Amino acid sequence: MTIEMKVPAVGESVTQVTIANWIKKEGEYVKTDEILCELESDKATFELPAEADGILHIVAPTGTTLNIGDVICRIATTVEEAKASLAADASAVAVQKIAQAGGKQEVVVMEVPQLGESITEVTLAQWLKRDGDFVKMDEPICEIESDKATFEVAAKASGILKIIALDKKTLAIGEPICEIIVSDAIAQPVAPTAQQQTTAIPNTTTSSSYATGHASPAAAKILAEKGISPQEVQGTGKDGRITKEDAQNAQKTVQQPTATASPSTTPSPAPPVQPELRGTRREKMSSLRKTVSRRLVAVKNETAMLTTFNEVNMKPIMDLRAKYKDLFKEKHEVGLGFMSFFVKASCIALQEFPAVNAQIDGDDIVYHDFCDISIAVSAPKGLVVPVVRNAEKMTFAEIEKEIVRLATRARENKLSIPEMTGGTFTITNGGVFGSLMSTPIINAPQVAILGMHNIVERPIAENGQVVIRPMMYVALSYDHRIIDGRESVSFLVRIKQLLEDPARMLLGV
Question: pLDDT tens across 231-257, in order?
């Protein structure tokens, strides 16, 4: 029996997922509940467990975007079923197209090319084309990675692609990657124009075909650098294809007449200037990054966002941490950071200014009598904002432990959707990256966000004296539709009071 694994429903608002990474390989034996792959939605990353014991056949490779309910893979309980499933997916489309088209057929085998003397094996990074797709000659069909660089593999012919090696697989030089089924009925060569016929080199002995006079990618690059048209070069490759060696020889042929010119009458031409080799890299934007981009632009366009600033003398908190951090860690098994002070101060200020802790729902304002504080975390795949629930009821130790737990799960891409939804107020700390001042963007549907920044020693006036103190700029971005200037400034001043005198947080004053 063969079991089809489909994209599960992961949330009401999630309609598509992307295959982030395959943990198991094609043809590998898997057990029930064993993790097969990671699925990435626009909100979180999920693990897909196997539904049965059997042999894995991957249907959707890494990077594929699927709808809810689409088939991801199949698990066959017998070897015969596994072979049948693989054969069906690998050649069904290609065979069907070839059978319908008819005509003379040819199979072109694509192998791992020679990339350098020191490179003996490569990894198939990703397929740019799918099994059964029609590909054109010199069109990139996949990417391969060596220990030095990433290369694109171009199709050697026009035809139907049949994939042999799956992505993430390590291959030796010369090992087959795929096959291209060429049929006269599917891909007819374009007839040369009259101008091309007159400029072509006469006395050509190579029979005309789809490859005649066509330069390989490497050859085309060399010819372009030398300013030589492919029609001026005689191809010695298969079916008259212009190879890299043909392009190099053509360069020597062009330069020969200059060697016979009289040095007294004709100056020697300057050596050709090699163009600067500058590479570019194009990557598909992840679902998480697309969602973050879309939401941030929407906030800028749909809210009346303003930012107010203040500065905080961090010396009282730093002195308190220096005095008790060892005892705190010994007792609670977690470090005493700055974030717990900001979370605690925010909870007190939010209860005093409820509009900052509210949100807009149509024509209504929804006020919250609890403080679910979202903490912005820079994860490997982008910005995520896990939530510390009921932070107003938590102690400093409980806040620190919860922040460490959520940050660890974020960096391991294991955060769930419930852990990232439902926050009422956000705190972001750009100071860890050295930011001195910024205007953070509101995390919708919230109406305010507090920005922390770098702590820098600056001279300030204190009791009529100029002293050096560790100072931090703080910023509050808010939605002016429901938060007035008086409330926003007063909120930030209250934060400043609580941080500069931490005893206020313990005494509730």
Answer: 777 777 656 767 767 777 775 444 444
Distance CA 217, CA 36 (A): 37
Q: Give yes or no for a contact between 135 and 165, defined as CB atoms under 8 angstroms apart.
A: no
Dihedral sign computed on CA atoms, order 314, 315, 321, 322: positive
Q: What is the pLDDT of residues 253-311, one digit of tens each?
A: 444 444 444 444 555 566 666 666 677 888 777 666 777 788 888 888 888 999 999 99
Tokens of 398: 């409980």
2-77 under CATH 2.60.120.10, yes or no: no
Fold exhibited by the domain 102-183: OB fold (Dihydrolipoamide Acetyltransferase, E2P) (2.40.50)
Find, among 484, 476, 472, 479, the residue nearest to 449 by Cα: 476
CATH number for the segment(s) 211-251 = 4.10.320.10
Please enumerate in sequence order all residues whose Cβ is within 8 A of that of 441, keeping only pairs 6 or more positions apart, or say none.
Answer: 296, 299, 300, 305, 449, 477
| Residues catalogued as catalytic | 480, 484
Percentage, residues of the chain above pLDDT 70: 79
Structure confidence at residue 233 (pLDDT): 77
Residues 6+ apart with CB under 8 A from 423: 372, 373, 374, 385, 387, 443, 446
Domains 2-77 and 102-183 share a fold: yes
Which residues, other chains included, contact 28 with Cβ-Cβ below 8 Å and sequence gap of 6+? 55, 56
In whole angstroms, give the CA distance from residue 90 to residue 79. 16
- The answer to whether domain 303-507 has CATH 3.40.630.10 is no
pTM comes to 0.53
Residues contacting 274, CB < 8 A, separation 6+: 225
d(CA 394, CA 378): 24
Q: Who wins on pLDDT, 146 or 264?
A: 146
Extents of the domains making up the chain = 2-77, 102-183, 211-251, 303-507
